[in-house]
Amino acid sequence: MRTIDWVNGAVEIIDQTALPNEERVLRLHTVGELIAAIQSLAVRGAPALGVAGAFGVALAARVHSDDPAALSVAVRKIESARPTAVNLARGARRAAALLPHGPEAVLAEACRVRDEEIEASAAMARLGADLVAELCGNRPRLLTHCNTGGLAAVTIGTALGVVGELHQRGLLAGVIASETRPLLQGARLTSWELTRWGIEHRVAVDSAGPFLMARGEVDAVILGADRICANGDVINKIGTYAHALGARRAGIPFLVVAPESTVDVGTPSGAQVEIEDRGSAEVTAWSEAVNPAFDITPYDLVTAIVTDRRVIRVDRGERP
């Protein structure tokens, strides 16, 4: 199952806002429709957003091929549809670099972005499973946060891909999926994917994670990233930092699994990253709220970062 793809002249996505109650496919024909899907989180997850950005430029190239000014505006809108994840702008820029060669060249590059993310997921699953087995032994109990499966990465996934690989090897005892407030990506999406894979799991409220670690019910925390800075700081869904602190206190590994395309060596640290605030309406209808969508986990709380090309042992002084 591909959660985002190019099909007969349009971008097709699984609408993540409808899950788990309905498996709905959206066909996006315009840049405006694609941007709306990105901003509403109908498509989300760093690798999937990179593919969405590239396909968005392919849509723009077809509609505005004879209007360079309109095309430039469309590309900028795609790049900035969500500011925190590096993959969206990176995917859009890769496809935009082919604009001088025409719409078909742009589409071909966008499809390459998609195919590379699929290959990256398979590589991360293998490398990450090897690392978890090395650090935790057989049949670990893992805690994950947000959603990092195929929904976030076209197929297989990042951190959840590692979980799936361990399950296939018979080396997994179980999973705790953190709810991921306020939109419940863990309770809705991760639980849905784990159920489809036949993986035993429980859902826990976000604030329970550190206590469950302290009580000895978790052997490692494994999650994804929307951006990894040059110093190893990890930008990921809000709540990640708390889990990192809990893991450090409990003395268990804190593992980040994300494709090489998420590593942003041009950003020195998390201090330079714009953290998206999604507004009060997602949290409450009767008062003002602070609603940061992401947080920054300092590199010194990270055990290791797994990409599709390498394992970076941050705990041993290695940096991206």
UniProtKB/TrEMBL annotation:
Keywords: Isomerase. Its EC number is 5.3.1.23. It holds the Pfam family IF-2B. GO terms for molecular function: S-methyl-5-thioribose-1-phosphate isomerase activity. InterPro entries: IF-2B-related, IF-M1Pi, IF_2B-like_C, Initiation_fac_2B_a/b/d, M1Pi_N, NagB/RpiA_transferase-like. PANTHER family: METHYLTHIORIBOSE-1-PHOSPHATE ISOMERASE (PTHR43475:SF1). NCBIfam families: eIF-2B_rel, PRK05720.1, salvage_mtnA. Belongs to the eIF-2B alpha/beta/delta subunits family. This is S-methyl-5-thioribose-1-phosphate isomerase. It comes from Actinoplanes flavus. The lineage of its organism: Bacteria, Bacillati, Actinomycetota, Actinomycetes, Micromonosporales.
